[in-house]
Hints:
The protein is an alpha+beta fold. The chain has helices at about 10-15, 25-40, 50-60, 105-110, 155-160, 175-185, 195-200, 215-225, 230-235, 265-280, 295-310, 320-330, 335-355, 380-390, 395-400, 435-450; strands at about 45, 75, 85, 95, 115-120, 140, 145, 165-170, 185-190, 210-215, 245-250, 285, 360-365, 405-415, 420-430. α2 packs antiparallel against α3, α5 (about 155-160) packs parallel to α6 and α11 (about 295-310) packs across α12 (about 320-330). The mean pLDDT is about 95. Belongs to the amidase family.
Amino acid sequence: MDALLALSAYDQLMLLRQSQLTPSKLTDVYIAQIDKLNDSLGAFVQVSAEDARERAASLEKDSQDKYLLWGMPHADKDLVERRGMPTGYGSRAGGLVAEESAPISQLADELGMVNLGKTNTPEFGFYGYTESDVSPPARHPLAPELGAGGSSGGAAVAVAAHMLPWAIGSDGGGSVRIPAATVGLVGLKPTLGRLRPDREASSIVGVVNGPITRNVRDAALLFDGLTENTSRSLRALSSELPQLSFAATADSPWDGFVSIEPDSAVLLAWQNAIEALQNIGMSYTGEADWNCDYYGETFRDAWWRSAAGMPENLPLELLNPVTRYFVEAGRSFDHDRIDRNIANIHTYQRETSQKWKDWDILVTPALGQLPQPVGHYSTDPEENFAQQIHYSPYTSWVNLTGRPAITVPVSTHIDPHSGVRLPVGVQLVGRHGSDELLLQVAFHLERCLSLGPVWAPPTE
Length: 460
């Protein structure tokens, strides 16, 4: 592996800014890594090597002072339109060439980044795993028989396998945090509305864009770029933590809708994080009651309403059976059911705010289970939905309430499927607008629980 790939995104950007590295050189190094690994890992569905090289060369002729992230490679998730490129949406119904770029792609360009292509995603992003009818599955770089989570699974694989320095994922129920936690990365779901492109969009379940990175410092750097704030989060990282309190829960609001029983390794990682947060000076207020008897129906109906919002002229026969079920279920709702769903969402948001009075941060497991094998998920819609909840019972409520959350790897465990030692993570959830504070806490937690070289990329 090229020595440049072993550097953090932060260190690569510093070399670019100091003229010790050019965008063209960095772009070529990453394209070579993609060529070497992508066929076996399924991270990218399109690689735009020549366009990337032209973009890098163009940036070298421009002033880097105009760009916060000058010359840094990235890739669009294949749910995101980029002018002149087809958008596959992980579906047989996709593939149209976009006439305009989506706001998040435009922002990446404004920041001076170099787009290397499109990363793998499940059909229209409706799944917490990355398998589809049109592309190979996204595979865990450390254990390729395992899936990478979703829906930003291709992006997470690309970052973990050093095919990208970082990635911008989208998250409407955990789609940044699930794959990041699955493959041992940092995944940040920002407060709803912190990014300009998210303020310009509307979403039933609170979809936002956020960083997927190999460490917290890189997440802060990319977040500062995406929020167009020069180094605000980055400067705060190593500062002494203020007086903070936290609660913890392994309860899931889905419990009751389905029975949630987290894996023992998941609970051990969560308990380790509770101890570590106290070791860095935070005050532990105890376990929080996070059960909710109406949450499961509420988020399920919101999810299906989102599916129902796909274009009316979309040929349903081109969708896989599970997606088609979601769309048809959402379109069957009458006005009373929609009104009840909207009211329940507002009630849940109020109740969550009321519970938050006594602490600054809530700590949960990142996932409910260890990574599952490729092909694990059923083609039966109801069973499939339940399987996804079992895997990720802690992420979706954060979207529904608009809060910021970050997943951080905190321990490792020998995977029973592969026999490989894999990272296990936790999720930190903050108050509205506390993204910078959340990054600071995650940075101190990361330093306290350094796991060493478990994320070394595959070499062939």
